[in-house]
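Quick entry between incubations.
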Amino acid sequence: MRAWHFTETAYPYLPPEDEYPSIRVTLPNKHYDPVKGAALYDRYIDEWLIAEDEGLEIMLNEHHQTATCVDPAGPLMLAAMARQSTKARLLILGNPLANRRQPVRVAEEMAMIDVLSKGRLEAGMVRGVPYELSPANSNPVRMNERFWEAMDMIVTAWTSHDGPVSHEGRFFHHRNINIWPRCYQDPHPPIWVSTTSTGGAKQVGGRGYTQATFLTGFKETRRIYESYRQGWREAGLGNDVPIDRLAYAAIVYVGDTEAEAYAGAEKLLWYVTANKVAPQFVNPPGYVPVPANVQILRGAEHPLSQFARGASVEAAIEAGFMMAGTPDQVYEQFKRHYDYVGGYGHLLIMGQAGFLEHDETVRGIRNFAREVYPRLQEEFPDTTVSGNFGDVPPEPPRDFIPAPGEDHVAQEAGDAANMTPLGAARGA
Amino acid sequence: MQAKTIAIGGVDLEVFEGGTGRPLLFLHSGQGFDPAHPFVAGLTAGYRVVAPSHPGFGKSSLPDWIDNVDDIAYLYLDLIDQLGLDTVDVIGCSIGGWIAAEIATKSPERIARLTLVGPVGVKTGPANKLDVPDIFAKPLEEVNALLFHDPDKFRMDPSALTDEQLSIAVRNRESLALLSWEPYMHNPKLKHRLHRATMPSQLIRGESDGVVSQAYLERYAALLPDARIVTIPEAGHAPQVEQPDRFNDAIRSFHTV
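Done. Structure below.
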């Protein structure tokens, strides 16, 4: 079991929410004070380094034109972390491939960071959430196709060592691909993909990449993992799916007491609640498939949006988005989720958000790292096989896999879209 | 009108056909073609109207290689051939106007007379100002206000539509995005080619059109060798829908021998 400290490097000092239509895409940057912003960067980097000292790994991401994540060039932050840190694995989750015009440049950036960090890079690739389309001026139609073509190009660039190779594809053209430096890890850094859809997970499983999913709770996570495992087996990668190919991102806060933990967790709900986005940016045409859009027009709503209106720590724990409480409570919450979904090898901890102050963040990191993490490492070893439900009957029962679309539009959207629907991958 | 599917250029193309007389190719806007609109009966009363649904619109297929207006312009040249027509009159609305303008630059000899209704397709203004407002970055309600003189009359009511109708509306919007996203609503080359479109042309604009401005239309017309401008009052971006009689009058007075 590996645990990762993640912050979206938010800029929380905003006007009241009713004074702007959208925290993303259109919020004027006159509301960003670069002096405060510089202090925040220092602080967030310090927190990653504290997490490293405590034995956690480091995860960051990239978003554009938004106060929720002021890291519009993930590789730049990652390059800084490569020099600031010394031992932690460095995960970027991820590079928004469908919005990057030059996949070879992504391959170069990742290879350079891999060398800078002496082989500590974990290279995550994402399709990109819907509100990134406008900032990238990127066509929302055929994103999946662009994503996978870019992915193939990057792997080609990483694994070609005998001079230029070429790519003339549907979306990208490059006649002389010959990157310097080559990757430090051989044949290349582990590849991660975040998906909240079963169709996407199956594809990721078929390639053996690491599959991450964000805030998908119990049933949806299990559906996604089952698809991953199915894709893995159908591709002939073997019957046993290594546990370290699956990752789950949850909001986590550990306190000495339940009251202290809930106070921290309450502030972390900012992840879910501070996401006021104008509808035209939430769902640009073509981002989700036609049947999902028909349901949306008929009034269907994404479960995270529903949740955000009445968000509470208790409800978030219940839904499996959050693990919060004393060390024992968090251990139990983790175990319940882990058992139900069939196990995973990475816990991506959304451990800082919004107004969770530095001291509170550090306390949460330390409490987790010292009081919970050792137990998880001992009881959920990396040698486990994923999806082996064993003797522990998961709750609800293990044969309960909801039919597609039974729950809500996100599932159908995801299934048909093959990739992250509706920005449910809040962090990716 | 009768709908049929024609296999052409790798596309299963839905084509509506009706009426007799001078052949007239009608190229719909981003909202798709609806034969029930009153202006259609007015057209079929005087012309042999051929109205394809563009690839990705209506029930027309969308092969993965199609991604811009140019592709569709070539497809319709195939269609004109397949229909055995030497020349046609063409009416194109909005993005359909863009397609029509592209056809007119490629094979001007095939078009006898050309009407562009609130056409997009050229970029004539400065780089730091959109020629056409970004309809994908505005709330639907605001877009509706740009599109219609009387938006209250044309607000989409999903509850009044079947799943199939709603699916078509959603898919039309998706295909519009595919074709027009970047460069936004134009082909940078088109304005350098419009001099080839020597046929008599008219550019129609609804007076309340919030998508295509009068200035834009005038600059567009100036690029065409033989164009006039007609303004239809009490109409927005779709004068054929909001003012069918005035629209059909403008068509009948222009599309004559």
